[in-house]
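Dear support,

Our group has been running a series of protein-ligand predictions, and this particular one with zinc ion is the one our PI (initials K.S.) wants archived with full inputs and outputs. We had some confusion internally about which version of the output was final, so please treat the block below as the authoritative record. The input we submitted was:
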Amino acid sequence: MKFLLQKIALLISILIAASLHSGCGLFHHHGDNYYTYDWTAADSTASVENDIQTEDQSDTEEQLSYQLSHAIINDIVSTSLDVSFDWKKQHMNGKATIVFKPHFYPTDSLTLDAKGFDIHKLELISPAGNKLLNYVYDSSQLHIFLDRKYSSAEQYSLLIEYTAKPNERTTAGSSAITDAKGLYFINPLGEDKNKPTELWTQGETESNSAWFPTIDKPNMKTLIDISMTVDTQFTTISNGVMISSADNKNGTRTDHWKLDRPIAPYLVMMGAGNWKITHDTWKGMPVDYYLEPEYSPYAKDIFGRTPEMIDYYSTILGVPYPWGIFKQVVVRDFVSGAMENVSAVVHFDALNRTHREIIDGNMDDIICHELFHHWFGDLVTCESWSNIPLNESFATFGEVMWNEYKYGKDAGDHQHLNDLNSYLLAGSENPVDLIRFYYADKEDMFDVNSYQRGGCVLYMLRAYVGDDAFYKALNVYLTQNKFKTVEIHNLRLAFEEVTGQDLNWFFNEYFLSSGLPVVNISYNYSDGSNAQFVTIEQTQTIDEKNPAFTLPVDVDLYFGNEVKHYRVMMNQPKQTFTFPAYSKPDLVNVDASKSILWQVNDNKSDSEYVFQYLHAPLYMDRYEAIKNFQNEQDLDENSRLALIASLNDKYWSLRKDAINALALDDEKTIADAKPLLINLVKTDPKPQVRTAALKKLATLNDKDLVNELASITEHDSSYSVLATTINALKDVNPDRAYQLALSLKNENTSSLLNVIAGTLASKGNDSDFSWFENKLNTADGYELFSLITKMKDYLVNCGSSVRRKGIDLLATIATSNKASWICMSAEGDLKQVKDSLESKEDPALADDIAYIQHKLDEVHDQMK
Ligand SMILES: [Zn+2]
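Confirmed final output from the archive:
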């Protein structure tokens, strides 16, 4: 599963607005969403604050209870579901035929998870005629009394007829369950004209038992087949392949989906909607993309690298993609970023992008994350939520692997740095074990530790054992445990089998412990001793409970073009290592593989960083150097020159970092850097770099330069470059900014919405009212929120007759929008328009001010 949040600043502002209105109930995530993502690709690292916590997080291990893995009494062999839907009531009618067998000990009872059902019939299937069975149902679990004791050599089958009512479930305190419904009906009656009608499911962690009876635990595996009866207009999707599709001649159709390999219940999925399927293949295997018809023409733009990803992962793991078919669907209002249901991945609607929008960045990271789960999570599944890093750390590391394979080592390392930074930013403050057997809520396991920190630990493990051993060990782990469930020791044993080494220390310190090393590195060279001394001191809290970390440290010594490689093992709080050096090295590069998960204070000199930038091989070497140049450019001439040189780094993100690091505040630097920056705006292949360079040059407030650049950039294919062009022109040539915004106002993208709305609003032309009207009538969510904010400025600047119409529009939104936070912001904006008009002290505005007050009174009356 992948959690994503977009537009963080906006989100936070909305949260603030929403918090003014208690009980707003808008932001129900799993309580665990933490993600960092190259969102618009315009600004690389958007860090996301953890969900605003309302509960005290001071729980300690002592207060939390040990989370046992589920004890298996009965195994599920297969699950067959026959389902149909009542869209009006948002109910699902289900008939489940499930085959069980006792796991080891004989048993005469069975407990199933079945959340919020009406049970109509529960029978034991028998050739001599079905038998009704006694059961006790508490609306959460079904306790079933079998007709006799069964041994593990026997199977028995149950038939359960039921109605699932996912919207009517309540928690103990009787509030509606909004984030674990399992089955979601979207716009079920088609009342929202701007949203398709569809349904989809989300199982992880234990929500699928809200729509079918099962043993809803990750250490359970079942075969699955689902017959879905839907109106003929709908396309269906589920696990496996569609083995039949029958027209029922009554306006409905029954599609039968079947997967012939066992999966955990949380990975079962079904969906129905108006999706158009685009077919692709990998080695003859179907690879299908389900999209709303509007986005179907861009299916290959959105998903087109999928077959190459399947091929890459199959090859490097030595385990071919194991499920026979791969499908992906983009749905509306998804509760997460994406979910790795076996062979039927669900994505949230941020993947609805046009060809042109994808120029600014594709969504391959999320696509490859879910795909990699098809080995780590789907084929080999964590036996308990305590072991979820065995799913999520791998899926996160799978993103690093894909970037490295597809775009080169720099791109993989860039992805790794994003993971490291997200963890350091938010996860290191409240240290927890990676594999956690103590937690309050299983949803808490889906955090920056299980994803990003775990990804970094795998990166470090790969560097320690070497690439060949690493991928061989993964092959052994996957092969030995396929279609089974695992805990962390299965992974260790595979690595030990392959490397022949005892790796308890690594797994104990990095998977089964909390915290991270914080180190100070200092250097000393003395001529007489012909030795280079390197002292590393671990400065984190070290005591009996928290011993010093064991650190395998690669150290490279550079003498001109000659490099000497060493690896030392650090296992004390403070250690000094001695390396032969007959002259003073130009650079001592500690952690030369840049793979250790630690926080470093490195006391290198400016000249060593310059040398490092020019000679050391890795992305991180150059990244660290650029960070140092940023701080030293005013103090050290060589750092300043090196920073200017790094504007032409071979990797795009470092060019962007160099641009952002550059201080354009003295004549010399302006003279040196300006031609390079202009060249980047004109010729760089990456829109992120063109955007950054244009932004930087715009800070010079040089009207002629901006106008000259705009002549080129206003024809750019990238929306982010266009948006930056409008913003750059706004200050120096507002008329031209307005004309450019006008020329782009019919583009089919939300990327330009903000900048166009802002530009039209500051101009206040009456003729632009219809644009605002149209957008306000079709947008929702964050987009609508942001449009309302811009509309406020427009209504202050436009003429009186249009102003009245706009006020009516905002008043209608304030009283009729379904989302209370949107209503509130529309009402708040009306007040602000009134305040702005009043502050002008213009008697001609008196009537309009009175009109707004009149509308506000109406809004107020209606809200009562
Ligand atoms: Zn995931």
